[in-house]
Amino acid sequence: MSHQLGRLVSQILQRYFGEIVEKVGSDLFRYGCKSIGMIVKSTGLPRVKVVESLRTLLKFDLASFEASGVFVDYKLLPDNVLLLIRYPRYLLQMKTKYGKEAEIIVEELLQQAICTATMLLVTLANKQKDETEKNLSLVQLKDTFISLATAGYIQQAPVPELKEGSDVPSLVPVVTIVPDLDVRVLMQAMNNPTEITDKIYWKVNYDRFHQDFRDEIMIKAMTRRIDENAGEVMRLLLQEMYLSSSAWAEVSNPVALGELKEHAKRLTDKPLLMQHLEHYLKVMEENGAGFIRMTGDAGGGQYCVQAKRAAALLVENVLDHVVTERLGSKAARIFRLIRTKKYIEEEDIQKNAMLPNKLCKQLTYKLLEEHFISVQPMRKSQHVSGLQKGIYLYHVKFFEVVQLCRALCEAALHNVSASRAGAERRHARALDKQRRVRTIVHGMALRNEPQANIDDVLETLTPPEVALLQQVEKQLKQLSAAELELDRNLFILNWYLMYP
Description:
Layout: H1 3-17, H2 19-31, H3 36-43, H4 47-59, E1 63-68, E2 71-76, H5 78-82, H6 87-98, H7 100-112, E3 115-116, H8 117-128, H9 138-151, E4 154-156, E5 159-161, E6 170-172, H10 183-191, E7 201-204, H11 206-225, H12 228-244, E8 255-256, H13 257-265, H14 271-275, H15 277-287, E9 292-296, E10 302-305, H16 307-327, H17 329-341, E11 344-345, H18 346-353, H19 357-369, E12 374-379, E13 390-395, H20 398-426, H21 428-446, H22 451-458, H23 463-497
Antiparallel strand pairs: 1-2, 3-7, 4-7, 5-6, 8-10, 9-10, 11-13, 12-13
């Protein structure tokens, strides 16, 4: 694991859990598996603090443990730590697909890490009962919870199981069973929370959200390349893929044209799609960058989704963008040329890149210096004269360049996160005052107090403070947007790297 990843993990843990958890997490990242005694010795923290930090990391699935005899070794899960910055995308996905009820359920579950269904719904109902403008009922929350469990966005948490010959239990995944919740029992639990007997814990299923993100990227790519109807055909193919193939299969099982027509008939808002479905499939196969492929003629034609091929093409776009941002569009042209030609000599680069020889050499060597391209020395066959001339072939080691790009994304994420933390630290007093004023104003609005009283409270923020806060909020929004965009690129890179 890279040094950049360690800095980013440390920054994220510091932001969300504080200094002590960050110190324990960084120690685990640096040394790998360690016992509690070794962590206490290397960090210098009290044993109680170390145990509390490990409990927090385990609760949020940011660390794992393994028993070796009577000792227990703990290990940090860096990839899960990076998911913390993706929480806003999860909430937006829920609000878009299922509405505000799903958003607050997932938000509460993300904050608590694991919770029983009864306790979760009772907690949300008690929080929302005084906020009449949200107009949420216990029945709505219950129905939404069941819908999310059915769709796989939330799942049952692993249960502890004690293996024979070991005193330390291990967490065993269980099959999620959609609960049968009774509203009357939930109402009784609201009145007497101490009498809740539910023992089945639930957690967010991140993988299900990532499948949605993957599908959305592929659909948008097809829409931009062809049109909205092509994007809808891509959506239908992905839906059929889930029925017959594993969610992250490199190539899905074939889908017959007849099945696609049956689904297309139900789309009343897209009449052209049904009429020209076969034409769209043909265009998508020939000009859709290889996202789909025809595998047979049975049933009018059979088509499969090539997820690994799609990931590779999207990663190529990310790499081109990174090279453009770091070295310019002309360097990106040379990089694309070398990647397309597989192996190419320096003279051929100058001929095909349509750039001045001196500039072409400078950019090629710059790409070589930044490790975006590599060089392979070769030798020509020996001539009669006995002289040998060495030639050098430039090429792109794609997997290594993807790893390099991921490290660059992690470094950029760390810089953005550090800038955000610095801005919040410099203006902590003004931001804290703004939060207090907003809290007071919100409470006054709920009590229907006169507008004049609310204005008096708002005026406690002076005009210079308001101007400063507007500037800080704008900066923080820009940093948050940059963080989410970098996370999107990191998601595409990890999507490609998950395939062998």
